Fold each of these.
Amino acid sequence: MSRKQRRFSLIGVALAVLALAVALVLNALKDSIVFFNSPTEVAEKNIKPGTRLRIGGLVKEGSVSRGDGLAVRFAVTDGKHTVPVAYQGVLPDLFREGQGVVAEGALDPSGTFRADSVLAKHDETYMPKDVAEALKKQGHWKDDYEKKLGAAPQGTAR
Amino acid sequence: MIAEFGHYALVLALALALVEASVPMVGARKNDPVLMAVAGPAALAQFCFVAIAFAALTICYVRSDFSVLNVFENSHSAKPLVYKLSGLWGNHEGSMLLWVLILTLFGALVALFGGNLPARLKATVLAVQSSIAVAFILFILVTSNPFLRIAEPPFEGRDLNPILQDPGLAIHPPLLYLGYVGLSIAFSFAIAALIDGRIDAAWARWVRPWTLLAWMFLTLGIAMGSYWAYYTLGWGGWWFWDPVENASLMPWLAATALLHSALVMEKRDALKVWTILLAILAFSLSLIGTFLVRSGVLTSVHAFATDPTRGVFILLILVLFIGGSLALFALRAPLLKQGGLFAPVSREGALVLNNLFLVSACATVFIGTLYPLALEALTGEKISVGAPFFNATFAPLFVPLLIAVPFGPLLAWKRGDVLGVAQRLVGAAAIGVITVAVVFAMEGGGPILVPFAIGLALYVIAGALMEIVERTGLLKVPIATAFARAKGLPRSAWGAAFAHVGLGITLLGIIGETQWSLERIAELKPGQSISIRRYDLRFDGVTTRQGPNYRDLAAHFTVRRHGEFIGVLEPAKRSFPSRGTAITQTALMTRGVSQLYLSLGDPNPDGSLAVRLYYKALVLLIWLGAVVMVIGGALSLSDRRLRVGAPRPAQKKAALSPAE
């Protein structure tokens, strides 16, 4: 094998691996990313039931109700719109009414959000960044949050 | 006084770093031995001053001196001593100080042990290393000073974030930083080689052990962090594809690639330009990791603070060092002489393939981590790129890599015989195929991917052992001869075998955990039981316990297997009054390499308790594999050729040509 052939075979293999990686990334970006929405965006965007998404906002005061076993229902609000959420499982340590929360799942045909994971933070004063921005847009922003934003770690429940 | 003393020491360290970054560099250009000789002592003194600053802050923490803002914000007088000490790096300012301490430590080590380096190379390397220190000490002093005082000192501190009050904090960050920052040595050597425009034998002989050392710490640090997250977060996840975890995985992948390419360079004098580029990339990824974690662009477990000035400062450091080094690379790399011809099918070729896959895998992680940030900055659209993305990109790239792993060490340098190697790997492949069949039969159908992955893991392990069997002639010659040969094998051969076996073990753990783990969630009243596999757990009741700065609400569970008592599990809700926060303390019971994992939800008003119980199959193998990899690294590091003497110089070819 001549030097040129050697070099070409190496470059060929490199390009093949690179092409494989690019194909995998493009394919995955098409299928496996999840968009984040505030309740207002959920109401306005007309999202198809079954599409995976994340919603974030505050847990509406007085909205948490527990059912049989570990079923729990609550509502997520950004002040303007409210989305009912159904979840089955153990909620994260600091899940409380009036606190920020992010849920991942999909809407069912009745408009209830079926969450399969709920995220909250391990600190009273925490608010997820996405939620804070969504609330800012709606004018429900408390200055108090700003100072402490991001000061706490995240806990997840699935 | 102590805090001011520490602050002053840090300023002095900055001054020394400035001297060390400039004077030896000029000396190396002018070939002035006096100016070059400044580098060594300056590096040692610089380390001493940073160590003094670090010690000063440590004293403030131990004494609970709440007149220091950093101590007030992150400590509490009732906190156990271990968390007072480790709380130092449980916050932004302190962790940056640890970063710089380790950076200067590595500089000092090069100064101490670099006696056999050419003076010019040593001076340039230390100057480059010191310029990194200048940037980061300046960053601390300007934006993140840990020695700031409060005018009216409060009586009590605000305590460390409860989730960080764990033994993991004492181990995970220092290990990870030793790994991250250890890559700076490879970087400094690469830049020095580019500035000099030449690489000699000393270069590869130095870079490989240092990279190996950094890689070992990085491996341990990542594994430790993963185990910590696993037992602390309450639902048994051990890898989240969280951007901050990715930030440590990317340098690891690059460092792994660098280890392998530096091997080619050391033995065969080939792949020089590529190795230099990898050294730059590996440390650049460490810097990007630091940026991701410290700038607050991400909200995650590790984001201690969001302060835009810090983000901008780190971004500047990033642009300066990464941009500068890549520009230098573009300018100077063509000057480096190429050597070491090899056929595509050869050990060099296999190592190139290894590098290609590792770097591609690293690139997919990079895209998955930064794409959401870029998209949000450009369009305002928020997305989350999670496990599905990485499973669809990272995993497929690792499969061909794993298939190729056993081939590498068996192929000959320069020109290999792939069929011959395949023949020698028939045994390993057979083990793999049989495993696939057995697992498939045991599973009774199910996704074919699982038996395949388990088979792949065993094939990697068997393939790595096969190399040792081959080389010692075990099974062919008498045991005593084989034993004697095994003793005579170079440690690096054992190291490679261990590292590859470790990789297989980790893979086995990953597949076992994701596929065969079981989960039970239930609400229990005292006296009720929950069972998983053959284990029955009876909830006996709750007790409260008072800790130094927390209160535990502990639930008592009796564990029986087939009705036979085997132990107790006591998960708890731990509440910290100083922060008004509660965290879950999970309880673990190890059964072989699997674990029972129990964590608590909130207690209900009616006295029942929500619990999550997991049976985590083979989960310990994930971290055990990492430990085996590190043992492999240590064996390789103790190889004679790295400790003494020059390696046999590769045969010089009459006609040199580029290798890639």
Note: The helical segments of chain A are 3-31, 39-45, 129-137, 143-148.
Amino acid sequence: MPVSEAYSACVLSCPDTCAYVVTVENGRVVRVRGDPRHPYTLGRCCPKGYPHVLRTYHQHRLRHPLSRNETGNFVRIAWDEALDETAEWMREAKKRYGPQSVGIYSGSGNDGMPPRLAARFANAFGCRMMPGIVEICFEGPYEGARSNVGPFPPHELSDCVDSQCIVIWGTDKFESSLHTKQVIQQAIDRGAKLIVMDPRRTPHAKMADTYTTIRPGTDAALALGIANEIIRRDLYDHDFVNKHVLVFEEYRTRAAEYDKERVSEITWVEPDTIEKIAVAFATHGPALTATAPAGMNHYTNGTWAARTVHSLLADGVEEPCLRQNASGHSETSWSEAWATG
Amino acid sequence: MHPDTAKHLGLRHGQLVDTESRHGVVRAVELLLTDDIDPRVVWTSDGWWLHDGNMNIFTQDRHTAFGHTPGFNSVLVRVVESSQTE
């Protein structure tokens, strides 16, 4: 029986994008396993990725177009019919209202080439392609971060290992980010403090040096409260501020409105805890803040929440990465991270 | 939902509940209790099907001031025993 191996990657819209080795027997995929040579995912994949084989051949998988009839039921139609009908609707919409009246949406969990080809198709047609998860997840936090620090490349995941203070802010890295979880554990093993803010007591919350709940929608107030404590106690890096931070005085004035008692009323976080987080963050660095493109950013004030958290940078005690990490300010963190593999 | 909250509302683990916000209601979702959540907060899975707790029903159309992100995680809801028995 002819057996071959092919190389592919997970398409489930997770940013880790696990590399796969796919075993094919007689033209049929029989096994998916992680590729250990992929430096980011190291051959370790999650339980959502491994069942791709089952998903691919599942009896309920839709394999042909359906059309809704007068009774509201879906019935199978031919591909030619489906394509002609869709083309006619698009042509008519373009004629009457212009190409931008058509939107192409890819949903999520089906990344890979099809959305890329759909994007190219949208360019040719002159309409918009809405990538599935960007506008509901990523756009807010990206815009918030960009407003503060401009476009910035994320840190290497391996940089996390050098952190001495890890703040997991409103995201469950333990259960939903297995590659981040691993480097966080390495940092903890090397003495990093762990701080977790989350209304859910996640597995990382149970391991944390400091854990606090937080009232949903108030993360921006907590970030300003932490900033106020750091500035008030003069724990920020003056040199960094002079060299790299614009309008610091205005920031200081704004943060001063958020004393820990007021912030505690807004956020449900105890005043002592706000103080404790601020001191650990500022003095037990290099610190990193792990947020998610969901969590605190899924509020109607979510973009501002991202801005205030990124504003903690202005204190010169951390470097951010929107997705997961940050570490020391020096280039040496690279070699150290690589050395520990 | 936290067990204390459930007790206060007269709800039990495993029963069907209706959850409503100012914008919509999702009926007959199974209630699960856990100590690992703030008693003042409830959490729902997301999904297309209503019995998975489709949170799009709850959210308002207002998005973030810039960045166009909807407020999935800051919705005020009321949870009551379900009017459906399914």
Note: Chain A is about 40% helix and 15% strand.
